[in-house]
Structure formats: C-alpha cells, structure tokens
Amino acid sequence: MKKQTEIEKNLAQLPILEYVFFKPEEIIFAKEVRDLCEGNGCGMYNTNWACPPAVGSIETCREKCHAYDKAMLFTTTTEMASSFDMKGWMDARVEHEALTNQVADVFRRYDKNALILSTEGCTVCKKCAYPDAPCRFPDRMYPATEGYGIMVMQMAPALNIQYNNGANTVTYFSMVLFNE
Asked: Which Pfam families does the record cross-reference, listed alphabetically (predicted)?
C-alpha cells in the first residue's frame, strides 16, 4: 500500500484525466478484440513487436498480466475540431504516448519489470526490426492493450472510468501492471 501511495503522489504531477488501481484478475479479455487485430483494420497486425502475433496468444497475454499483483488504467482526453479530425487524433495519440512514457518512468522507479500497455502498436522506430531481429528499444515499446485482447470498452465503465468524454473528443487509455 505504501508503494501505491508514493506512486499516486508522483502521478498527481502529471496531466492524467482519470486513473484507477485494480486487480489484474479484473482485466476483461475477449477474443473479439484480438479478431479485430487479425482483421488488420489499423494496418499494424504482424508488423511490429507491440502487436499480434508478436505479443503471443490471448492466453499468453492473460498469463503475463495475471503474474502481476496490481494494475492501473489511466486516460487522457483531447478536444478536437471535429470527430473526423484525423490529424487531431494523431496529435492526441502522440501526447498520450509521451504521458505514457512519464507514467512508465514513475512505475519503473518502484518496479523495474512493470508491464506497460498502450495504444495501437508501437511507433518508436520508423521501421520495426520485427520479425528479423529483437526490438531495439524494449523499454520504450509498449504492447497495445487491444493486441493483448483486452476489452477496454467494457473495463472502463466497470472501473468507473469514462470511456467516451463527449462529442469532438478522443480518449486514449494505457495500462500498467506492477508488483507491490
């Protein structure tokens, strides 16, 4: 509990909209989410270490998550000119990933093996080394929550976190799993 209190003091300094601590057993895994990945709607499937199939099966991902004592889900929300503002979405994602780096730094002070999950696959490198070589920046590569088969849309309301923050906004989610 002391570790969580120290972490929360550090998180209070960051522009996080909402966050919640919970048990990894509360994570909702769904094959349907992984099926969306395999449909490759985002174009990231089988292209990088942060997405399927590189992250392993849903069962492997579940086992990885359940190996930790605690989890935290957090959000950012950005207002945009319109719901169709693709540049706004991308800019908001870049800001969210920068915040995810800061959150990762906080947690890794307390657990160097914390697992950080974030949005839509890794964009650290212009060309990922996958599948020919190991990840060049494993400390900055955060697997996608969706790639892990995690159903954030159902988890957020179950954990009293807003999934949708209104018209002309985009809300991004990241998750941290850590040991006390």
From this structure: DUF2284
Q: For 119-134, what is each residue's pLDDT tens digit?
A: 877 888 889 999 999 9
User: How many beta carbons lie within 10 A of that of residue 40, not counting itself?
Assistant: 13
The model's pLDDT over 122-176, given as tens digits with 9 standing for 90+, comes to: 888 889 999 999 999 998 899 999 999 999 999 999 999 999 888 988 899 999 9
Q: Which of 91, 93, 118 is nearest to 104 (CA)?
A: 118
93: which residues sit within 8 A by CB, 6+ positions away? 119, 120, 170, 172
Alpha-carbon gap, residue 18 to 113, rounded angstroms: 23
Is the distance from CB of 116 to CB of 142 less than 8 angstroms? yes
Residue positions counted in the chain: 180
